[in-house]
Each structure stands twice: as structure tokens, then as C-alpha cells.
Design goal:
The complex is a heterotrimer of chains A (about 500), B (about 55) and C (about 425).
Chain A: E1 2-7, H1 14-25, E2 32-37, H2 40-48, E3 63-68, H3 72-80, H4 82-87, E4 95-97, H5 100-106, E5 112-115, H6 119-131, E6 135-138, H7 145-158, E7 162-163, E8 169-172, E9 175-178, E10 185-192, H8 195-207, E11 212-217, H9 230-241, E12 247-252, H10 257-268, E13 274-278, H11 288-298, E14 323-328, H12 331-343, E15 349-350, E16 370-373, H13 377-380, H14 391-402, E17 406-414, H15 423-440, E18 446-452, H16 461-470, E19 474-476, H17 479-493
Parallel strand pairs in A: 5-6, 6-7, 10-11, 10-12, 12-13, 14-16, 14-17, 15-16, 17-18, 18-19
Antiparallel strand pairs in A: 1-3, 2-3, 8-9
Chain B: H1 3-10, E1 14-17, H2 20-28, E2 33-36, H3 46-55
Parallel strand pairs in B: 1-2
Chain C: H1 6-26, E1 30-37, H2 38-41, E2 49-52, H3 64-77, H4 83-91, E3 96-99, E4 105-106, E5 118-124, E6 129-133, H5 147-171, E7 174-175, H6 177-185, H7 195-211, H8 216-228, H9 233-245, E8 257-263, E9 266-271, E10 279-282, E11 287-290, E12 303-304, H10 308-311, H11 326-329, H12 333-344, E13 347-356, E14 362-368, H13 370-376, E15 381-386, E16 397-402, H14 405-418
Parallel strand pairs in C: 2-3, 4-6
Antiparallel strand pairs in C: 1-5, 1-7, 5-6, 8-9, 8-12, 9-10, 11-16, 13-14, 15-16
Helix pairs in contact in C: 3-4, 3-5, 5-7, 5-8, 6-7, 7-8, 13-14
């Protein structure tokens, strides 16, 4: 059904009208739209297109705007915003330019470049951005160490922030860059070498009612001896100066002694508490949850207890069901799961193993307590990341279900900007099929999941959890709780 | 105020080079963003590069 | 290894040849002298022949819109009674298909031209050469062969063309150079936006039509057409561009692009120092906006001789001075300026006639150099209309397209072979 509106004596150029029609057609509930001056020729066109309802009387100097929609309400709302759309400057839309230089010329107040090009081009473009005076968020991972050092020293010389290479997540003044969650603003500043590490800690801070001032990503190699923590130091310094930040938390795998010492020296002289979350450091916090709780304590707030896993009843495992298999999209989550399993005495193997631990011989074939990072380079070269495309993980899940030695499968489901529209929904069918396969073979396959997100994420935290629960998944409150539960299960029943 | 402090104070105004969805996410958060239609720089075949050398 | 002494001299010869070629282009003085049936004025157009836009193409490889446009002219000429008969005739090779560019002509979109279709005739008074362009319309030239579409060109043939031809002959020709310059200054880029040129020409023609004693009915019909058809000026800018650049063809050692033309199947360029040769690549898709009821899925590929306007430094090259067309760029004034700036990096000269106020009255970029295109990989930007991928449809949209780099690389390689440049 088409709905129209005539704006009398309003001449608008046809190019503008084509753009108007395009904007209207993109609105929710609108199937198609047309906008033309009411000349006889145009009215014929509109009639043929089924757009002339109610506008036949319009004259050559009148503007006809029509939309096709099943919903009267959607049509009304769309037609009501015509004036606004016509008045909006073109660059109110997302604009497009051929080069970085042109972008800066088009909007001189631009202050940050997000670069997610293939590795071989990324460094050159990031360098250009820094030279143009832009901070850089460099998502690309395969950038050489020499390039990284050069970029970061250029950034330091210019007083700019070079987040990355291999920086997945940042939150600047409440705005998420790359893969990031819609986290409430609050007093905790974050500096992190790992994207999912930042996502987990910031969503937990959100859940604890505390919130985040900024989260500065520095890239996975920043705290190495070769790079020396250039970005982490710059970020830490900025957060220590920042008025909105009351305490800072640094999230990373254990850093080399001299880099850690440099950071700790800054912290010692700082007027604010700094929490060091070197995950895996025997003297530090054992889990990301613990890091988040220390950050909450550092700003003087109480930390509410975490809800229980919900897996209270004993699961009757079949004889021979003895292994935990983690199928992870987030690298740091896979790492944390290994720490937890290791602490429980299970000796996990992985394609991204803990230092000194045994690697998985073939990343594509699970064995023993295998924790697989499906977001690692070997799985994502030329393929979409599992946070965006669940197919590889679904296939692997079905393989695990056929393996009679598997007792528990661990899944992480990461929500937020950049992630898939419906990550839980993408896994649902495979989960149901996996459990059915096991049951047909006389086994009960336990599928545990951790959902990293906030209620304000585009996907909705509760809705995503519910999808998983409906598929028979036990949803854990945190990744570490999930891994602990898994360890308990196989210790109890798999002997 | 230095550049990093002013980024934190005023928030991002972004230029996106690469994955288009990152620009969409920023726009959804009301971050001003311009997307660059990036094309890989040309690498000329040797004979063409040499011709250009000769032809100026 | 020492450098051959011939190498620097080649460079110098190319620079000198380009100065000569682009000098000829800038010295052009296009005069609109007539409107006459193509069969009477276009050299070599005879019998059952239809000229088309772009480089040569066979019926088998011809795109949908151009096929539709050819069939429309077969019906218009009365060579067939029905569409099916028209198709059989063309498929049997009974109709000769040749590019407009091989006959000193150009045509917008499908560009189809046949002998009883009147064409605009522009003479370059500086060099005495003439060029032709068929009329613009929003239907038949886009591939629509319906009765309604053919009615438009019949009215042109029977009423408007005779009237305008009489007026032009009455006034002894209309110098276009000042009108082109004024139109550019009024915001035209003379390709997708010829509105000011159309209005200026209409104003000049009106009293001449009265003086030429055109019958009242025809006079009124012609005057109304001049008033309402904002696009007819494109045929004049195209004919003027073609007449202006032809004398720059065939200058030994010149790397100036003298033609960019597309047939919806291939994009082709020709180069001054390599006369008669086409360098082609698959026609690119146009990035555009669509009229109601159409989407990118309906679009044919880039088509038309109208890129002759970019070849002389109008169209996409002067987007920065044409705010009215900015919407097609899909962006801001700053981006339009950026396109014009980018075109400066691949051109040989600046226009003495059109100085862009927004660039501090610096002349517009003129004259594409294949060397500069290949070296910078900055591609000529063309703003253009969009036809349907299938025959039988009118205009469906407009947008921007970039000339394919392969054409320029192929031309450069051939240049190297032809002039035995030591590579």
C-alpha cells in the first residue's frame, strides 16, 4: 500500500529527490519510496510505479513524496521526516571519500583514524594518519614488528596515541571502537593489550554498576620488550591526568620485567590507584573477573557477588566422557580458561597454549582437554572471524559432539559493536544438533557458555542468554566460572 | 591541552579505512565518521614502470 | 650501463607534442551551425547503417540498452514493422553498426544515430572541421523502443529539428564558446548538468525562431520544448567538445587522450599520437542513485560518448565548480573539490576560459595525459546517467564512474612499441 504526501509549491532538484527517496526507502518498515516534482510526465511514472495514491491532484510545482509500506504508522513516520531529511546537510550521512587526506580536508576536526586494512597496507595508511595528526586505532594484526616500532615512535614524537597494531577494542569517551560493548561511563580507566580482555573487564565493570571512563587498547605486542609498552605508557599517563578517571586498570598477559617495571614506576608516582592485571602472573589476579573486582575496589565501591552457574544438579556422564573442549572466539578468554583448568590440575592443550604448556598437535583436531582459539591467525587468514561468522565454530561443535570422550564444551559468545547481529542465534541450531547427536549415542553432552555483553549492546544481553538457555545451554556468569564448572564436572563424573 | 587529553575530553571524530561495518558501528553511536573508499596502491608491471621512466 | 641518448629526446618530443595537441584543443572555436538529418551531413553514413556510442562492438556483444536503442531506430527508420522483425534484421547483419567516433560524431548514452535522425552540427571555425551529435532524450537513447519513446524523436525529426535548423541558418550560426563558459560559471559541468547551457541557448534561439518564420504551431511546440527540456544542451556541449578535440588527434608523439567513450560493454580510449586505435577494457559499473522503481540490480554498465566532455575538461573534471550536481557525488562540496583537484594531477593544462572561483579562479584542468594516469593511478572521473541492463527501458539513474586503468596501461604499452621507446 502506498502513502503519499504533497508539499505544495516546493521545488527540489531531482538529484536531491533521488537521495531523499533513497533515505526514505532505507527507513524501518518502508519497502520503497519515490520523490518527484508533480509534472505530468512524473505523475505518469509515479502512477506506473503505484506511487500516485492521494497525490494525483499535485501540480508541476508541487513536490510529491510517496512510500510503500504495509504499516500505516511506518509510512506516516517516514513521510513526517521529509522536511528534516531535505534540510539535513549531505554530510550528515556517513560520507565517503577516496583518501585519508580527503577525509581530513572534508572534516578538519577529525581526530582519529580506524585502520583495518590487510596487513601489508595497514602500516602505510596508519603512518599517513599519524602524519596528518590523527590518533590511530590499528585493528590489523599482520603488521611487522619494525613497522609497529616505527609507528609508535612516530606517535610518541607527535603526542598521538597509536592503538595497535592488533588492537581489537577501545572505548574513548563512551564510544566503542572496533569490537566493543556499550558500557556505562564511570570512574575506571582501562589500558589493555587484549581486545577480549578489555571487553570482559569493561562489561563486568558495567554489570557491577561502576562503569568505564576510557579503555585504551594498545595491541597484543605493545608490552613486549621489543616495543617497550609505548602505547600502554602513553595511555596510562593520559588516564592518570584524566579528570573522569579515578583508578586505572592495566590488562595484559605477564609483561617482561623491564616493561612491567616501567609501568609500575609510573603507578608508584601516580595520584590514583593503578591495578595491574597481568593475567597468568602467579603473583597477580588469577582471572579477568578478579581484575574487574580489584578495579571496583580501587574506586572504593563494593563488589556484588556473582550469581551461581546454575548447574547444581549432577550431570550423569557416560563412562569415557572425560574431557573438556573449549571452542573460543576470544583469544584472552581461551587463555583464561586454560589458566583455570591448569589451576584445577587438568593440563589443557591448545593451539594458543600457556607458556610452557603443551601445544595442540593439530589445531583442527581436538584431543584431551583442548582449548581452541578459533580467532587465531591459522583459522582467520582469508576467513571471517568467529565473532562475525559462526560457521567454523558450529562445524567444530558437531565434531566434538561425535567424540565419545567429550563431556563438556565451552563456548564464549561476544556481543557488542562489531560482533555478529545475533551471535547466540547463529550457534543455536548447531548446539541443539550437537546435544541430540550425543544423546543418540547414549551420552549427555554438557554445553556451557559465557556471554560477554551488556544490556545496552545492540544484540541485548538477556535476549542472547535466553536463546542459549532455550537451546539447552548452561549459561555461566563469567568465563572463569564456566571453566571452573567444567573442571568440577569432569573431575566428578568422568573418572 | 595535549592531543591525547583532548581526544579523551572531546571524544572521537573518526575516519574509517577498511572494514565498513566499523564505520556503521560508530555512526550508530553518534560518532561523526567519514569512510574512506580505500583502494590498494598500484604496483606497476616492470615494463610499464620503465616506459614511464623513459617518457617522463 | 649507459642511457641511450634517444631517451631524453623522446621525453622532450612527447612534451612538445602534448603542448601542441592541447594548444589546438584550447584554440578551438565551436560554432553551432545547423541541425540536419544525419544522412545529409554525416560523412559515410548511408543506407541501413546505425552509429552507436563507444568503441566498435558487434550485435552479439552489444549491451541490452544499446540493442534496445538500435531496435528503436530500425523501427523509427521504417526498416521493420515489428520489434521481432527488427531484431531478425539486425541479427542477420542487414544493419551496419559503426561507432559515431568513426564518423566525426558523438551520441549520448546508446548514442544511436541513423540517416533520417537530425543531428546537431558544430563547426570548429579555427580549424574548419565539423562534428555531430544526435539529440538527447530520456527514453530512446536509453534503450526504450516503445511508441512513446519513438514519438519523442519523431517530434524532433518533424517539428523541432527543422525549426531550430532554420533559425540557426537564419542567424548564420551560434558561437558556443561564450555560452559554454557562461554555463560553466552558472554551475553547469556540461555533462549531467547542462541546464544553464540549455536555458542560454533557448534564450538566444527564441527570437531567431520567430524571425525564421516557422509555422505557428511548430514554433510554439519548439519554444515549449526549449523551455522544458533542460537536457538538450548536453548534445551541444558534446558536439562542441568533439569539434574542439578532433584537431588535436594525430599529433605525433602526443600522449593526450582524445576520446573516452563507452558502449555499455567496453570502455575505450584513443590517444593523439596513436590515431585510429582504440584501447579498451570491460565497461565499469556506475556508482549512482536511482529513479523510483529501479535499483543497482537493474543497471547496465557504463555507456555513452558523453565522456567526450571529460576529455575536454568538463563533466567530472569540474565537479568542484558545479554545486548543483554534488548530490551525484554522494557527498560534500569538499569531496567535489577533491575530485577536481585529483583531475589536476592527470591533466596537461588549465583552461583559460573557465576559471573556478572556488579555486581562487584557477583554470579548470584540461587534457588527460596517459602517462600521468598510469603513474598516479588517479583515474578520470566521469559523472554520467545510468541505463537499464535490459533493452526497452528509459533512464533509470545517474552517478559517478572512473575510467578503467587498463585502457591507459594498454595505450602506454602500445605507445612504447609504436615509437620504439627504450624500456
Amino acid at each position: 500500500m502506498s502513502h503519499s504526501r504533497v508539499v505544495a509549491a516546493r521545488y527540489v532538484d531531482s538529484v536531491v529527490l533521488m537521495r531523499l527517496a533513497q533515505s526514505l526507502a532505507r527507513r524501518p518498515g518502508i519497502d520503497d519510496a519515490a520523490a518527484m516534482m508533480g509534472t505530468d510526465a512524473n505523475k505518469t511514472l509515479l502512477r506506473e510505479g503505484g506511487f500516485l495514491n492521494g497525490a494525483a491532484a499535485a501540480g508541476a510545482n508541487d513536490l510529491i513524496v510517496a512510500v510503500r509500506s504495509d504499516s500505516d504508522e511506518a509510512a506516516e513516520v517516514a513521510l513526517a521526516c521529509v522536511d528534516e531529511l531535505l534540510a539535513a546537510p549531505v554530510d550528515g550521512e556517513r560520507t565517503r571519500v577516496p583518501t585519508l587526506e580527503a577525509a581530513v580536508r572534508a572534516r578538519p576536526s577529525s581526530n582519529l583514524a580506524l585502520v583495518s586494512l590487510p596487513g601489508e597496507y595497514a602500516a602505510a595508511e596508519a603512518r599517513r594518519a599519524l602524519e596528518l595528526g590523527l590518533h590511530v586505532f590499528l585493528f590489523s594484526s599482520s603488521v611487522s614488528l619494525e613497522d609497529e616500532r616505527e609507528l609508535k615512535s612516530l606517535a610518541r614524537d607527535r603526542g598521538l596515541l597509536c592503538m595497535g597494531p592488533d588492537c581489537g577494542t577501545a572505548i574513548i569517551a563512551g564510544k566503542g571502537l572496533g569490537f566493543a560493548n556499550a558500557v556505562r561511563r564511570g570512574p575506571v580507566g582501562v589500558v589493555g593489550a587484549s581486545g577480549t580482555g578489555i571487553q570482559v573487564v569493561t562489561t563486568l565493570l558495567d554489570q557491577f554498576g561502576v562503569g568505564v571512563s576510557h579503555a585504551i587498547g594498545c595491541g597484543s605486542r605493545d608490552l613486549s620488550s621489543a616495543v617497550g609498552g609505548v602505547t600502554a605508557l602513553a595511555g596510562l599517563d593520559a588516564l592518570l591526568r584524566d579528570e573522569a578517571t579515578e583508578a586505572v586498570v592495566v590488562i595484559s598477559k605477564p609483561a617482561p620485567v623491564e616493561v612491567a617495571a616501567r609501568l609500575r614506576a609510573r603507578a608508584a608516582a601516580a595520584p590514583k590507584p593503578v591495578v595491574f592485571g597481568f593475567l597468568g602472573d602467579p603473583d597477580g589476579p588469577a582471572t579477568l573477573t578478579e581484575i574487574a573486582r580489584l578495579a571496583v575496589a580501587a574506586v572504593g565501591r563494593p563488589t556484588p557477588p556473582l550469581p551461581d552457574t546454575g548447574l547444581e544438579e549432577r550431570v550423569p556422564l557416560a563412562p569415557g566422557q572425560r574431557f573438556v573442549r573449549g571452542l573460543y572466539a576470544g583469544g584472552t578468554l581461551a587463555y583464561e580458561a586454560q589458566l583455570v583448568l591448569h589451576a584445577a590440575g587438568l593440563e589443557p592443550v591448545s593451539n594458543a597454549p600457556l607458556p610452557g604448556a603443551a601445544p595442540l598437535d593439530d589445531a583442527r583436531r581436538s584431543e584431551r582437554h583442548a582449548i581452541v582459539d578459533l580467532g587465531s591467525e591459522e583459522f582467520t587468514r582469508g576467513r571471517p572471524h568467529p565473532m562475525i561468522d559462526a560457521r567454523a565454530r558450529c562445524a567444530r561443535l558437531l565434531e566434538e559432539a561425535r567424540d565419545p570422550s567429550v563431556a563438556v564444551v565451552l563456548l564464549d559468545v561476544v556481543l557488542g559493536y562489531g560482533a555478529a547481529e545475533d551471535p547466540a542465534g547463529d550457534l543455536r541450531a548447531a548446539i541443539v544438533e550437537a546435544r541430540r547427536t550425543a544423546r543418540a549415542a547414549g551420552r549427555e553432552l554438557v554445553v556451557l557458555a559465557y556471554v560477554c555483553g551488556t544490556p545496552r549492546d545492540p544484540q541485548g544481553l538477556e535476549a542472547q542468554r535466553q536463546v542459549l538457555i532455550d537451546a539447552g545451554v548452561v549459561v555461566a556468569p563469567t568465563n572463569s566460572a564456566m571453566a571452573e564448572t567444567a573442571a568440577r564436572l569432569v573431575e566428578g563424573g568422568g573418572r | 591541552m595535549n592531543e591525547i587529553d583532548s581526544l579523551l575530553a572531546s571524544g572521537p571524530e573518526a575516519v574509517n579505512v577498511g572494514v565498513r561495518e566499523f564505520a556503521d558501528s560508530l555512526a550508530a553511536q553518534d560518532v561523526p565518521v567519514i569512510h574512506v573508499d580505500w583502494t590498494p596502491p598500484l604496483s606497476l608491471p616492470d615494463d610499464v614502470a620503465e616506459l614511464l621512466e623513459a617518457l617522463g | 650501463m649507459t642511457t641511450s641518448p634517444a631517451v631524453p629526446s623522446v621525453k622532450e618530443r612527447v612534451d612538445a607534442a602534448n603542448a601542441e595537441a592541447v594548444g589546438r584543443l584550447l584554440a578551438a572555436d565551436p560554432i553551432l551551425v545547423d541541425v540536419a538529418p544525419a544522412g545529409e551531413v554525416v560523412e559515410g553514413l548511408e543506407g541501413r547503417m546505425i552509429l552507436h556510442s563507444g568503441p566498435p562492438v558487434t550485435w552479439e556483444r552489444m549491451c541490452g540498452a544499446q540493442r534496445g536503442s538500435v531496435l528503436g531506430l530500425v523501427l523509427f527508420e521504417g526498416w521493420a514493422e515489428s520489434l521481432a522483425e527488427a531484431e531478425r534484421l539486425v541479427a542477420a547483419g542487414e544493419v551496419v553498426l559503426e561507432p559515431n567516433h568513426h564518423h566525426h560524431g558523438v551520441g549520448p548514452m546508446a548514442g544511436t544515430t541513423s540517416s533520417s535522425l537530425p543531428v546537431w552540427v558544430v563547426e570548429n571555425r579555427t580549424y574548419g572541421n565539423r562534428a555531430y551529435c544526435r539529440p538527447t532524450d530520456a527514453a530512446q537513447q536509453f534503450g526504450d523502443y516503445s511508441d512513446g519513446a519513438l514519438r519523442g524523436i519523431r517530434e524532433w525529426r518533424d517539428v523541432r529539428a527543422p525549426a531550430v535548423g532554420a533559425a540557426l541558418r537564419e542567424m548564420g550560426g551560434l558561437p558556443l564558446k561564450p555560452l559554454l563558459a557562461k554555463a560553466l560559471a552558472m554551475g553547469d559541468e556540461l555533462h549531467n548538468r547542462p541546464n544553464a547551457l540549455s536555458a542560454l541557448v533557448a534564450t538566444v534561439l527564441a527570437p531567431e525562431l520567430v524571425k525564421a518564420v516557422v509555422p505557428t504551431g511548430d514554433l510554439l511546440a519548439t519554444l515549449y520544448w526549449l523551455r522544458y527540456d533542460e537536457f538538450f544542451g548536453l548534445a551541444l556541449s558534446m558536439a562542441a567538445a568533439k569539434a574542439s578535440i578532433e584537431p588535436a588527434e594525430g599529433v605525433e608523439y602526443s600522449t593526450l587522450v582524445t576520446t573516452m567513450a563507452r558502449n555499455g560493454t567496453e570502455f575505450g580510449i584513443r590517444v593523439s599520437g596513436l590515431p585510429g586505435e582504440w584501447f579498451t577494457a570491460p565497461a565499469p559499473a556506475v556508482d549512482g542513485l536511482y529513479l523510483p522503481g529501479y535499483t543497482a540490480a537493474d543497471a547496465g554498465l557504463d555507456m555513452g560518448d558523453s565522456a567526450i566532455t571529460e576529455s575536454v575538461g568538463w563533466g567530472g573534471f569540474v565537479l568542484g565548480g558545479a554545486p548543483g550536481i554534488l548530490g551525484l557525488v554522494g557527498g560534500t562540496a569538499a569531496q567535489a573539490l577533491e575530485i577536481t583537484r585529483a583531475m589536476r594531477t592527470i591533466t596537461l593544462a588549465t583552461s583559460p576560459d573557465y576559471r573556478l572561483p572556488v579555486f581562487g579562479f584557477e583554470g579548470a584542468p584540461v587534457g588527460i595525459d596517459i602517462r600521468k594516469v598510469v603513474r598516479t593511478s588517479v583515474l578520470p572521473t566521469i559523472d554520467t546517467a545510468i541505463a537499464h541492463r535490459e533493452p526497452g527501458y528509459p533512464k533509470i539513474g545517474g552517478g559517478l564512474v572512473r575510467a578503467p586503468l587498463e585502457c591507459f596501461v594498454a595505450a602506454l604499452r602500445e605507445f612504447g612499441r609504436h615509437y620504439e621507446v627504450a624500456a
